[in-house]
Amino acid sequence: MPERTAGPNPSERPIAARIGDGGSPMGAGASPASTGASPTAPTPTGSRVGGINLSFRVVLTVWLLVSAVLPVAILGAAIMAAGLYSDARVMITLVIVAIVAAAFLGLLAAALAVASLTAPLRRITAAVERVAAGESSPPIHLTGDDELVRLAESHNRIAAEAARRNRELGALLDAIAGYNPADGPATLAARAESDACAIYGLIDCHLRFVDPVAVPIEERIPGDPRPVRAEVRAGSETLGLLIGHLPATRAWERADQDLLDLFASEVGVALRNAELFGQIESQNAKLLELDAAKDEFLRGVSHNLQTPLTSIRAYVDQLRAASDEAAMDRRLGIVAEQADRLTRLVRQLLTVTRLEAGALRPEVEVIAVAPRVRRAWEALNAEGVGFELRDEGGGWLAVADPDQLDQVLWALLDNAVKYGGRDGRVEVTVVADDTIDRVHVTIADHGPGVSEVDRRRLFTRFTRGTGQASGDGTGLGLYVSRELLRTMGGMLWLEPARAGLGAAFTLSLPGEPPGDEG
Amino acid sequence: MIEPRPRRILLVDDDASLLVVLSEQLHDDGYEVATARDGQEALRRLEAGWPDLIILDLMMPRVDGLALARRIKAEADLPIIVLSAIDTADSKARLLDEVAEDYVSKPYHYPELRARIQRVLRRLGDRIPRQSLVLGPDLTLNLHRRAATVAGTEVQLTPTESRLLQVLAANLGEIVTTDSLLARGWADTEEAEPSYVWVSMRRLRQKIETDPDRPCHLITVRGVGYRLVSRRQDA
User: Fold this and answer.
1) Quick check: is A465 in a domain?
2) Is A317 an interface residue toward B (CB < 8 Å)?
3) ipTM of this complex prediction, to 2 decimal places
4) Which residues span the domain enclosing A46?
5) How far is it, in rounded angstroms, from Cα B83 to Cα B78?
6) Sign of torsion, CA A93 A96 A100 A103?
């Protein structure tokens, strides 16, 4: 059976928890250099007597001898000295003094022994606690060959490995941070291989895009480079396998495997990002191509529609100019109007493309709006619809692109006719607001008005009033109008509904007072 | 007024039916019209003699109208009116600035086109510099690019502003009446009023004068018209 990932799924555990035995939280782990900033200076731990390092066992023996034998010797000496005196009182006093002295000496020696013997133990404890708290610890130096020394060595080994894994984690995070999705999967895979070698000290490393199950686990032969592997995953999907070899002398523990799994999963995410990035790039390129094709198409359509329209329009003009009879013929008038209408619709479509491309740059000139409105109305030739134009502009001129303003006026007037009801009447008012230097044009009809539902989506593209046949208009008029006005520093809004009255749209443009100078 | 001779117009378009009808329309209005269906033919016609005006379709299938216009401009300062279906890319419209006096989109309205032709022809006889015109330390006109450099900063001019400055520059130092500015800045179909000139001049002054309240280049001659003044001797 192939080996599955040894540890729990790395992606399900926070990075700090994945370091494993003797590890440290990320903060300390990411900066192994913090050793130097450690508050306690490294000091060799051990008992020094006369400048000679003695092992724990020798020191213990010496102290036991001192604290046990010395008082007995003092007591013995006191008893022997007491025997020289015949006076019982003196003898008893002497013995009592000796007992007290021996006891005192014994206690003193014992206290000194405890203080001296526990010092290395305390240092080891402190060092272990620091490693447990995630700090790095300098090695503890003890001499001799006893249990205490082995304990210190064991601690030193754990601390060194924790420090090594911290370094590896730091290098790993640095490597991952440098993975740019724009580099592409192949480059990333090559970088991941060399990074894995550098971080974990591997002899070789290969990233293979295969099903890990299909690659049998290499047997470990003592003395030969040790095989290591980790699955490369992105989320729940397995992308491949990272296989490498470790020098035979190197230890490889659970924590190391966790670190390798972590690296492999991050590589997997980076590869997946690179893949998605590539897809988006190619889709973008395709979209740009499509966009260019669409523009080219519209230009072609524009040219191919407008060339015949130009001929139609020109011949109608010529026919009407030729004789009064032709000029009066309503049928010729209709041909001209319909050609004009088609022209405007084609132009509206092209305007949408140009708006979307941000290619529309208005050439703003000064314009008297009221005559412009009248001309737009006449061009519309809405028979049977009343028209009233109130010019209260006081000679103010609007600042706008004439062609674009014509498009807007035509669309708004066309709407007013279309939605204005059977025997509609269109009212246009031009006013100047000299407090804000703007010219306002309100176009009102006497139709049913705009429903609450329509109000919200009125200015979106391809939107028609509810109940309107889909063949009626392009659904672009209000959208194009608002956007065109916006490029000219103008605005367009729908006035609040008024009882008994239809829809009223107001457009606002920058204005200039007439001012006689010349 | 009776013209001493009919104005000659060269019409370049690949649409044969348009050439027929438009040349008839123009002929009816007293113009002498020659037609060409492509750039080669147009250049051959030019060798035979220069017209007063060229009307050119920029979007012809086999010929790059823009290249043709540039070549014509390089050989002679002939006014060109571009007659073309509107383009989706505005960049091309920008290129017009260097070659065309005016732009009429297809389908044209003949009265509109005729009004533009008349306006362009009014400028005949004016020698308008096609290179930069230095009017002072703080003002240089680059009318061929429809721009001015004001105190080191480039300012874009609108087509009308550019036309007005062309008239004023062609009569540098002299008074140009409001009426002639009106006739040169706007086509008849635009129904422009004198206030168009006043307001345009005010806006122009905001653009090209370093102190619009105390103009030193664009001078109002009250009740008469305007004067463009060079300040080079002061520099």
Assistant:
1) yes
2) yes
3) 0.83
4) 22-160
5) 16
6) positive
